[in-house]
């Protein structure tokens, strides 16, 4: 289960958008009451109770076309983009940019060096899709139903230290970053330290394969599952736009499902803080030294304070090393303040550990009694190698009893293989366009595609080293390609794009008591087929 963080580097390629379930378009007007819904609701909304939702039946763009080598033919957009008047598009784009500025749907401007350090400096709108993306109800429900099952699986895997160590043993020899994480895990195991209160804020990412019509998992993120805050805002933006322009577009804002990600993530953090049982303690957000996605994080902290009166502090790993203190009873102090919950929005990539200072900080936190989100064992349980190991025959049965749950998980597994499988390696060399080669790296931009897969595999065979253990092979998924309006840097482009659905979930357990195990909203990311893979 790969871990990931949607960084600003990927935002130049990815745009945030929202799902709209496909149904017959309506041309009725909508009341203003639809615009007054609070930001970041905590209760789950079910669009299925009030809507009759069918299968994909939207208008096609005239003349389906092939986009690039190995990309599936264009799918079905939510509306015929060729039929929309340019003047209307300009009005919608203008309103979307105003709304984004007024409601905090913003990121730091990469052209302003201070934008990643100082809030309020160099803010620009987040890259967004102008209109919602259609998605079939049956696959949406499937993704939502999988969330609590994956949560339980990750929790049980995290408790099996031997499985984690053994599965990653070969990777440890050739991957310095994974090796350091495993060293920390080993020290915690030697201490016989039990994480009685365990918190996970997760996101499982999927693509809908156009040929097989199967919903296939890309990865399961256990650390720094980002964009819960901004994703909720995009839901509200699209609802507002369809309230205003739905009649002209033939779209109904009620077809956009509610998004509860920020509210429920805040609820999970607050419940964990309560379980820690120290009203003077704070929740600490571990951040990068420069973070242009800080507003996504600030939305979560704001809801946590305003709704639950939980105070937060933001610290880098280097600052934690400098200011952190571990008391004999396990209490973790930073700057003299007791920390109840440590929420990682950094620490998932080698670049987050430029010196030994950062590694000392990570170990110190793991040794403390503070609730880690994620703990080192949850972090390792989300690696790509563990994802591949869990896809092997009879492995899920070691962790789950329900045959029905196991079948549901297996149905969404794409093909996953170790490079020691010579038959698969041979096939990947012969047809590299059908595979993705993944290293144990997170944050985007690390995967290997196309002819580069062939070249890398041939190089590894020639060198006869154990470097192959640093990678896994995954079946390449080919989702439908659709024309989409994407807005970046205040400019609207009509691109051919593919979409990726992320379903958030929260898991909180104290000893034998499961306090929370819920699906918590969603994120739809749309990628230009010429840029995103």
UniProtKB/TrEMBL annotation:
Pfam families linked = GSH_synth_ATP, GSH_synthase
Q: So which cofactors does this thing need?
A: Mg(2+)
Q: What name does this protein carry?
A: Glutathione synthetase
Which organism does this record belong to? Gossypium mustelinum
Details of cofactor binding: Binds 1 Mg(2+) ion per subunit.
Lineage of the organism: Eukaryota, Viridiplantae, Streptophyta, Embryophyta, Tracheophyta
Q: Keywords assigned by UniProt?
A: ATP-binding, Chloroplast, Glutathione biosynthesis, Ligase, Magnesium, Metal-binding, Nucleotide-binding, Plastid, Transit peptide
Q: What interactions and quaternary structure are annotated?
A: Homodimer.
Q: Which reaction does it catalyse?
A: gamma-L-glutamyl-L-cysteine + glycine + ATP = glutathione + ADP + phosphate + H(+)
Q: Which residues bind ATP?
A: 219, 384, 438-447, 449, 474-477, 500, 527
Annotated residues for binding of substrate: 203, 297, 525
Report the NCBIfam families cross-referenced here. Answer: glut_syn_euk
A Gene Ontology molecular function term for this protein is: ATP binding
Q: Where in the cell is it found?
A: Plastid, Chloroplast
> The Glutathione synthase substrate-binding domain covers which part of the protein?
282-381
Coiled-coil residue spans? none
Q: Name one GO cellular component term.
A: chloroplast
């Amino acid at each position: 289960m790969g871990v990931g963080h949607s960084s600003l580097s990927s935002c130049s390629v990815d745009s945030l958008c929202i799902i709209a379930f496909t149904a017959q378009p309506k041309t009725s007007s909508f009341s203003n009451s639809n615009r007054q819904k609070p930001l970041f609701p905590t209760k789950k909304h079910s669009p299925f109770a009030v809507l009759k939702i069918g299968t994909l039946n939207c208008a096609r763009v005239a003349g389906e076309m092939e986009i690039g080598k190995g990309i599936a033919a264009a799918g079905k957009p939510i509306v015929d983009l060729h039929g929309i008047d340019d003047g209307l598009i300009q009005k919608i784009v203008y309103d979307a940019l105003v709304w984004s500025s007024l409601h905090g749907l913003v990121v730091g401007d990469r052209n302003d060096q201070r934008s990643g350090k100082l809030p309020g400096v160099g803010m620009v709108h987040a890259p967004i899709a102008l209109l919602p993306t259609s998605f079939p109800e049956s696959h949406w429900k499937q993704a939502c139903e999988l969330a609590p099952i994956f949560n339980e699986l990750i929790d049980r895997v995290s408790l099996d230290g031997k499985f984690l160590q053994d599965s990653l043993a070969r990777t440890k020899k050739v991957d310095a970053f994974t090796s350091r994480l495993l060293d920390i895990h080993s020290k915690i195991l030697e201490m016989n330290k039990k994480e009685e209160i365990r918190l996970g804020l997760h996101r499982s990412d999927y693509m809908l394969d156009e040929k097989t019509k199967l919903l296939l998992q890309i990865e399961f993120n256990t650390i720094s599952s980002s964009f819960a805050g901004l994703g909720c805002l995009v839901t509200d933006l699209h609802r507002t736009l369809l309230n205003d322009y739905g009649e002209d577009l033939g779209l109904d804002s009620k077809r956009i499902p509610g998004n509860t990600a920020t509210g429920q993530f805040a609820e999970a953090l607050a419940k964990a803080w309560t379980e820690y049982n120290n009203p003077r303690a704070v929740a600490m957000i571990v951040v990068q030294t420069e973070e242009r996605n800080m507003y996504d994080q600030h939305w979560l902290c704001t809801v946590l304070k305003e709704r639950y009166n939980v105070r937060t502090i933001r610290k880098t790993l280097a600052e934690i090393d400098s200011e952190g203190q571990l008391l004999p009873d396990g209490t973790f102090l930073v700057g003299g303040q007791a920390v109840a919950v440590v929420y990682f929005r950094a620490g998932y990539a080698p670049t987050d550990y430029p010196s030994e200072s950062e590694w000392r900080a990570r170990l110190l936190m793991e040794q403390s009694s503070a609730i880690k989100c994620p703990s080192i064992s949850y972090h390792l349980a989300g690696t790509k190698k563990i994802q591949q190991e869990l896809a092997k025959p009879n492995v899920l049965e070691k962790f789950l009893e329900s045959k029905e749950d196991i079948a549901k998980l297996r149905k969404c597994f794409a093909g996953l293989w170790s490079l020691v499988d010579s038959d698969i390696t041979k096939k990947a060399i012969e047809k590299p366009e059908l595979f993705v080669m993944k290293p144990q790296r997170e944050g985007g931009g690390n995967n290997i595609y196309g002819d580069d897969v062939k070249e890398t595999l041939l190089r590894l065979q020639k060198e006869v080293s154990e470097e192959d253990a640093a990678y896994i092979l995954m079946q390449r998924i080919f989702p439908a390609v659709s024309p989409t309006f994407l807005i970046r840097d205040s400019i609207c482009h009509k691109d051919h794009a593919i979409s990726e659905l992320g379903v958030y979930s929260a898991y909180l357990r104290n000893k034998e008591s499961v306090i929370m195990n819920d699906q918590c909203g969603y994120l739809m990311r749309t990628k230009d087929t010429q840029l995103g893979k």
